[in-house]
Design goal:
With 207 residues, the protein is mainly beta. The chain has two domains: 77 residues, no CATH class; 115 residues, Macroglobulin (MG2) domain (Immunoglobulin-like), CATH 2.60.40. Helix content is 14%, strand content 42%. The strands form three sheets. A five-stranded mixed β-sheet has the order 11-10-6-5-14. Strands 7, 8, 9, 12 and 13 form a five-stranded antiparallel β-sheet that branches.
């Protein structure tokens, strides 16, 4: 995720207002970052703030910046708080698939989870695994679910957990509709039951 640091500080000093999700403001930015030179704007969704102020550190913002003249310098003109679960899911997905932070052949894990009114859905992916069979375990609150063993495809393996009957019929491991309680922790186990890679407290999307 991009960091705005001094840009947000400039915006705060300038006293520009910003919207909070869920307080009557429409989401103005979606998709990928966009540089539109027709209107000299740079639009960036899901910017994570770090090391600015405790009141905003760790939050995600959608931002719009104006180009200054014919330079490649931009000035922040708009910032709006964005859904933290959505932005974190995007960040986790990018980090999992991007080689920029690849630590050699280290095994990586990605968890994507979604809670609806009457449905829970969790996907667990791992890559850079030694060829073999693995299982996934997910935990949310007091609930625990374990998949069956599954063989790798290349160096990857993927597990789906779902409360939807159609997805269960297609091979997803069954979980209760209320399985997800805020966050999900997950781990990949080898055939000996040993943990190969794990992640704790992944925030889930709520729809």
């Amino acid at each position: 995720m991009p960091r705005i640091g001094w840009l947000l500080a400039t915006w705060l000093v300038a006293g520009l207002s910003f919207g909070h999700e869920g307080h009557g403001h429409d989401d103005k930015i979606g998709g990928v970052p966009l540089a539109d030179f027709r209107v000299n704007e740079l639009r960036i969704p899901c910017v994570e703030v770090q090391n600015l102020d405790p009141s905003v550190d760790g939050q995600f913002f959608d931002v719009i910046l104006d180009r200054r003249g014919n330079s490649m310098n931009f000035e922040l003109k708009f910032a709006e708080v964005e859904n933290p679960q959505l932005c974190q899911a995007i960040a986790d997905f990018a980090k999992f698939h991007d080689d920029f932070e690849d630590a050699g052949d280290a095994t990586r894990i990605l968890v994507i989870c979604e809670r609806r009114q009457s449905r829970s859905k969790v996907s667990v992916n791992a890559e850079s695994l030694i060829a073999g069979r693995y299982a996934a375990q997910i935990v949310s609150g007091a609930s625990v679910a374990n998949s069956a063993l599954k063989g790798t495809e290349g160096d990857e393996v993927e597990f789906d957990f779902d409360s939807d009957p159609a997805d269960i019929a297609e091979g997803a491991t069954a979980i209760a509709p209320d399985f997800i309680q805020g966050t999900v922790s997950a781990k990949i186990l080898n055939e000996a039951g040993e943990t190969v890679v794990a992640v704790d407290s992944v925030p889930c999307l709520n729809k």
